[in-house]
Amino acid sequence: MKEEIRSHIDDAAQLERLYRGNKSAFKRDFSSLYPEVKGHPLAGFWSERLNYQSDEISWGSKGELTLVIIASLVAGFIAKLPAIFGIDENYFYPRNIGFIVFPLLTAYFAWKNKLPAGKTAMAAGAILTSLLFINLLPRNDKSDTLILSCIHLGLFLWCVLGFTFSGGTRNPLKERLSFLKYNGDLVVMTTLILIAGGIMSGITIGLFSLIGFHIEQFYSKNVVVFGVAAAPIIGTYLTQTNPQLVGKVSPVIARLFSPLVAVMLVVYLVAIVRSGKDPYSNREFLLIFNALLVGVMAIIFFSVAETARTTKSRAETYILFALAILTIIVNGVALSAIVFRISQWGFTPNRAAVLGGNVLILINLLLVTWQLFRVARKDAELSVVGQIISRYLPFYFVWTIIVTFLFPFVFGFK
Hints:
Helices cover about 80% and strands about 0% of the residues. The protein has helices at about 1-5, 10-20, 25-35, 40-50, 60-80, 80-85, 90-95, 100-110, 115-135, 145-165, 175-210, 215-240, 245, 250-275, 285-310, 315-345, 350-375, 380-410. Helix 5 packs antiparallel against helix 12 (about 215-240). The longest helix has about 40 residues, at about 175-210. Keywords: Membrane, Transmembrane, Transmembrane helix.
């Protein structure tokens, strides 16, 4: 859309048509293009219009609202498939939980971004292939490769969603960073929706119990299931049609949690030494350690995505730099622990997956930390850090493909 905006920058009617066709994409592309076109007569007007913060809630177009309602109902229906058709829940949910929401969000962005037919077919083909693959794997609840495939399948579907979110552009670096920001906004909005839904559910069940109707079981098996499945879809719709709803909340959360997480990591590392526990001999502790690592990495990515859009404060850069250094230490401990376990007891699917993931994260952390150091010294702009993160995301996508689709065959479905 950026090239269309540039070519029609003096045509008010064409700009209005582009804006009404896809408001969020227009705003994103116009903002990145504005420094180049701000001398044009209409550029200033559109800048003021797009950055005006309205107090009113926008419900988007009728077609978009209809699509979101249908998608929410479909998500709830997919979540209820085991109850409707008597499918074993222990078989269905581990393999298919990602298909409750991700394909519908993928379809939403493909429609919203007017993704070309060829790229839409690529996304649909990837989803269909993964659906068939995961459900045709031999059933073995104790199979490590099955568990790894199920976990990494969610990441694979998340990557496909990112492809449609960015519109499949040839220069997707900025769109990938926008995708990370969208994920942060979605977490905030979905959490708020779930909290509000939980309060409403408690009140509803309580009111019915007062008049002698105990609806807890029916409500949890039907209304709650549909509500939880629909929450990310409704959250996505609200963040896309009303970016102002979380536009000021997300940066605050990023600024607040970055220093808090840094302090927590320092205290936690000291506590590990004092406790006498370590990830070298305790498998469960190693798993928790790696979960902590992934969580902190997500906070760094989210903070960079938010800070790059809002401010270039050196204090925030130093905090992110310190957080990245601490995360490298955590990664180093986890990586040394998994190498130790492999040297003692050999390769297993879990150890191979953790080793590969830790190496990928370490390389990414080193690149991000170096760029944050350059930003702190004023040798580079914070946008360079975002570019590094964006360029590295495809490596995670490749790794999810390897673990999801190749590990079961490499390790003989063990």
